[in-house]
Amino acid sequence: MEHQENLTAYVAAFVAELVNTGVRDVVISPGSRSTPIAMVMAEHPDLRVHIHIDERSAAFFALGIAKSLRKPVAVLCTSGTAAANYYPAIIEAYYSRVPLIVLTADRPHELRDAGAPQAIDQIHLFGKHVKWFVEMAPPEKTDEMIRYARSVCARAAAIALRSPSGPVHLNFPFREPLVPNIGKEDLFDLNVRPDGYVSVETGKLALSEEKYEELAGILSRSDKGIIVCGPLDDEFFAENITKLASALNFPILADPLSQLRSGKHSKDFIIDAYDTFLRNSDCKKALKPDIIIRFGAMPVSKALSNFIKENIDIPQFVIDGGAGWRDPAAAAYMIHCNETEFCKSIAKYVEKKNQHPFLDKWLEINDLTKTKLSKINETEELSEGKLIYQLSDLIPDGATLFVGNSMPIRDLDTFFHVTDKSIRIMANRGANGIDGIISTAIGAASVLQPLYLIVGDLTFFHDLNGLLAVKLYNINIKILLVNNNGGGIFSFLPQASEPKNFELLFGTPIDLNFEHAVRMYNGKFDKITSWDQFKSSFLKNMDNCGLSVMEISTARDRNVLEHRELWNYVSREISNKLNGVS
Amino acid sequence: MEHQENLTAYVAAFVAELVNTGVRDVVISPGSRSTPIAMVMAEHPDLRVHIHIDERSAAFFALGIAKSLRKPVAVLCTSGTAAANYYPAIIEAYYSRVPLIVLTADRPHELRDAGAPQAIDQIHLFGKHVKWFVEMAPPEKTDEMIRYARSVCARAAAIALRSPSGPVHLNFPFREPLVPNIGKEDLFDLNVRPDGYVSVETGKLALSEEKYEELAGILSRSDKGIIVCGPLDDEFFAENITKLASALNFPILADPLSQLRSGKHSKDFIIDAYDTFLRNSDCKKALKPDIIIRFGAMPVSKALSNFIKENIDIPQFVIDGGAGWRDPAAAAYMIHCNETEFCKSIAKYVEKKNQHPFLDKWLEINDLTKTKLSKINETEELSEGKLIYQLSDLIPDGATLFVGNSMPIRDLDTFFHVTDKSIRIMANRGANGIDGIISTAIGAASVLQPLYLIVGDLTFFHDLNGLLAVKLYNINIKILLVNNNGGGIFSFLPQASEPKNFELLFGTPIDLNFEHAVRMYNGKFDKITSWDQFKSSFLKNMDNCGLSVMEISTARDRNVLEHRELWNYVSREISNKLNGVS
C-alpha cells in the first residue's frame, strides 16, 4: 500500500501542477507502463484527455492543438518504441517552435538494459531535439519529492513555452503495481501553494533605447529598404509591422505563413506575388534594395531566398525574438529581440518621408504580376494553381487554412493573395515534412473552426492513421485532396530531366482509391470533376460535421507545364513593362 | 561538372562496395536530397530497389527482409523528419539484433542550423540505438576519398552483422545539384580490389577447453537442471541444444521464438506448456530445479520469468554469443560465448546418466497440461485460444508464421505446441512494440513463402500503411486479424479491476471496418463467423496471390474469462495429479 500511496501522491501532484501551468489538453496513447499518469489525468476535471492509438499521429495531433492555442500540450505514452514514434512530431515542434510536454513512462532502473520486455534506453531518447530532458526520480510522497515533482513540472511548462518555444521531455520510471489509488477524494489537493508551486516570469528580448534609435537611423536613411516576413505566429505582429512599414515606406514581402496576407490590418504595403516576379532578372535588377529587414523563419519562396542570397552586398538584418540563426545565406546581422517590440520601438524614432518611388515600383510590379497570374482562372481543366484562387474565393471569413508541404504551400505562395477576410494559415514548416500533416491539421481543427486542409496524395497517405481522431472525437475538417498520383514537386526539379527511373524513384504513383479509407473513417468523399462541381461541393460541405474530403485529380506533367507557361508569360509581361514595351 | 563527377564517383564506389559486402536489398523512400544515392542504386544490376512512401513502414519492411535473410539490408531516405520516422524500426533492430544499414541524406554543412528548409540535426540522430554512426565526408573523387567511401561501407556492413547484429547509421551531406551522371558505362568499375576493398573476418566468442570442461562438470553433477531457450535465431542451434539436453537429461523450456517447437530435430526434451503449468505453485515446488541454463532473449512467458526470478537461490547461467546482459532478475552468471559452439563443446564432456526422474516429471506434467488445455477445442464460439490450435493444424509445412505482440504471441506461447512441420516463427521481440508489425511481416513475406501473420486490431491499425508494399510489389501474405475491437491484453492486467475510465484509457475500441482498408490495397477480405468457415476460408486462401485477410471477431471480456477458466481448470487437474487425487 505504501507503494501505491507514493505513486498516487507523486503523480497527482505532478498532474495538478500541470493544470496549474495552464495545460488543458493531453493526448494519451494506450499502454500499461503509463497507467499511473493516464489514470490520474483521466480523473482531473480540467484536463481534456484525447486518446490516439498511433503515437506518431498522437504527437502531431498534440502539435496541432499547441500551435492553435499557442500554449503547451502534453503527450503521454508507454515505454519502448511507442515513444520513438513521437520523434517526427518532436523534431517538427522543435524547429517550428511549438511548446510540447512529452511524458514517457519507463521501466524502473533495475529493469533497464537487462533484457526486460519493452525496455529501451529512453534517457535522452530525442537527443538535441528537445529543449530539456529530465529523468524523473522514482515516485515518493515525502514533502520534498512532492515539491520536486511540482517544481519540475512548472519548469518544464515554462521552458516549453519560453521563446523559442519547443518540446521538453520528462521520463518517468514506474515500478509495478502500476494502478494508482484514484478513489481518493482529495486526489488533487495541494497542501502548499495550491495555485502553482513555482511561478516563472520570463521577459522578452529587448534592445536598449540607444540601440533602437541607432537602428532606426540606419533604416530611415535607406531609400530602398524592404521588409521580408517569413512564417511567424504572433497575434500582435501584423498591426505593428504594418505601422513600421508605413513609417519607413518599405514594402513587406509577406510569406503566406507570416499571417500578413489576410486579416483586418492594412495591406497597403504587402507584396504577395514576389515568388513569381522575383524569377525575372530584369525585375530583380529594378527592385534591388539597399537594405533588408527580415522577420520570422525563412520564407517558402525559393525565388525570394535566391534574391536574399544575391543581395549579400547590402546590409541585412534578421530580427529574432527566439535568438536563433535563421540565415542559410550567411548574410545577416542578427538582432535578437522580440519582433513586435522591435517594430514598436523602431517606429518611434522613424520620420516618415513623403516620397516613396521604390515602394511604388514594388507595388506596381506586384499588381501587374497578380493581374497576369489570374490568367490561370481561364483554364477549364482542373488545375492546382486555379484551385488556390477558387479556394481563396470560397473560404469563409474566420476560417483556418492548413496547408501541406511540397506543392500546396508553394502554390499557396504563388496564388493566394491579400484578402480582407481573416484567414489563419498554418503549416508544418519546422522541418517541412510530409509526415503528420493530417494529424496536425485535425489537432488544429479541434480548436479552430472551420478548418480547411489542402494536401497532396502522398501527404494524405503518409498520415492516413491520423483520420482516426476525426472519427473518435467527431472533429470537423474539410480536406482538399489534390491527387496527382505521386510526388508532384519532383517534376519541377532537375531530377525530372532524367526520365530513366524517374517514376520509380520520384514520381512514385501509388494508385490508391482513397474513397475506401475515407469511408472507413465515416467521412464524406466527393470526387471533383469540374470547377462548377467543386464550387457546389465546397458550399454543400461547408456545414458538414466530421470529415469531408474533396478529391481533385490532376496530372503531374500537365501541372508543371501549366506553372512554367504561366511564369514565363508573366515574366515576359513584366520585362515588357520594365523595358517600356507596351 | 567537377561537382557532378565527384558526386557520381564517390556515391558509385560506395554503392558498388555495398553490393560487395553482400547487400542485395535496399528500401528507398522518395526524396530530393537522397537523389545521388537513389539514382545510383537504381542503376546497379545486383540491387533490388523497393520503394516505400512512409519511412516508418519502409524501415520495418527492411527489418523484415533482414531478419529473414539474416543479413544486412539498406534503407535510404532524404533529410529532415523522414529519417526520424525510421526510429521505431531502428530501435527494434537494435534490441532484436537485426543488421540494418541506415543511409540518410543531409544538407551540406553550410546549410545546417541556419534555418534552411528541411534541415534538422541528423548527427547521432538515433542516439545510442545504433551500433555505429558516421558523418560521411562530402563527396570527392580522389583515390583517397574513394577508398574512404568503400572502407566505411565495408566497415558498416561488418559492424551491422557482427554479433550482436544491429543497425548502423551513415549520414551523407550532399550539395546541389544533386543529379549524378548515371550515363557512364563504367559507373561501378572499381580500379583496385574490385571484389571488396576491405574484408572483415570476425570470430565468434568461445571459451577455453578448460572452461568448457569445468562447466560441463558443474552441469553433469546436477540432477535437476533445466534449459530455458528464449527467442534465438541460429539455424544450427536446434540440433545442438537437443544433443546437449539429451546428454544432460535436462528438459528444454522452449519459447515459441526459440524455433525449437517445430522442425525436424528431436522434440523429446521439449517442454512447451510451461506458461500454463508454471502458474501453479504446487507444480513450481515439484519442479524446482537445482540449476538453470538460459539461451536467447528473455522468454515471452511471464510465468516462466517469475519462475526464474523465484529460483535465484540456485545457479543460473545465461549463454549469450552477443555478450549482452539479458537478465532482468539480476540472477545470472554470464557466459559470453556463441550458443551453438557452447552446446557442442559442453556435450563433449558430459557423461549421460540412465536415470532421469526429474526430466520425466517435467515431461509428464507437460503432457497432462497439453491434454487438458486442448479442452478449449470444444468451444463452438470463435476463440483466440482455439484459433492457435486451428492455425497450427492448418498451417502448411515449411510456412513462416509471423506473430503480433500483446496477445497473439502470448496465445501462441500457451497453445502452439510441438510439431514436426517446419514452421519458422517470427515476431518483433526486441522492444515488443505493436508498431511496424505489418511491414516487418511483409518484408519477411517478400523472402519467405508462404507467410501467415496473426495480429490484433490495434496492431493492424497501427501499421495499415505497411500494406502499400503488398499492392506495389504483389507480395503474398495471409493475415489472421483477431479483431476484439481494442486492447485485449489490458483485460488481463490489474488495470481491468478499475472499471472507471477503463474503456477510455485501455480498452480503446476504435470500431473500424477494416474491409475498406483491405479493399483499398486490392486485398481479399473474409469475415469469419464459424470454425467451419475459418477452415474453408483458410484452405481457399492458401494459394492466393497478394493480400488475404481473414477477420476473426472476438470479445475481450469473454476472452479473458475463457483463458482464466481454462488455466484454473488445468491448474486444478495438475494439483490433483500432484497430490495423488485421481
TrEMBL record, chains A, B:
Annotated GO MF terms: 2-succinyl-5-enolpyruvyl-6-hydroxy-3-cyclohexene-1-carboxylic-acid synthase activity; magnesium ion binding; manganese ion binding; thiamine pyrophosphate binding
Alphabetical GO biological process terms: menaquinone biosynthetic process
Pfam (any one): TPP_enzyme_M_2
Cofactor binding notes: Binds 1 thiamine pyrophosphate per subunit.
Cofactor: Mg(2+); Mn(2+); thiamine diphosphate
Catalyzed reactions: isochorismate + 2-oxoglutarate + H(+) = 5-enolpyruvoyl-6-hydroxy-2-succinyl-cyclohex-3-ene-1-carboxylate + CO2
Pathway given in the UniProt record: Quinol/quinone metabolism; menaquinone biosynthesis; Quinol/quinone metabolism; 1,4-dihydroxy-2-naphthoate biosynthesis; 1,4-dihydroxy-2-naphthoate from chorismate: step 2/7
EC number(s) stated in the UniProt entry for this protein: 2.2.1.9
Residue ranges of every copy of the Thiamine pyrophosphate enzyme N-terminal TPP-binding domain listed in the record: 12-124
Source domain of life: Bacteria
Job description of the protein: Catalyzes the thiamine diphosphate-dependent decarboxylation of 2-oxoglutarate and the subsequent addition of the resulting succinic semialdehyde-thiamine pyrophosphate anion to isochorismate to yield 2-succinyl-5-enolpyruvyl-6-hydroxy-3-cyclohexene-1-carboxylate (SEPHCHC).
Subunit relationships: Homodimer.
Protein name: 2-succinyl-5-enolpyruvyl-6-hydroxy-3-cyclohexene-1-carboxylate synthase
Source species: Bacillus methanolicus PB1
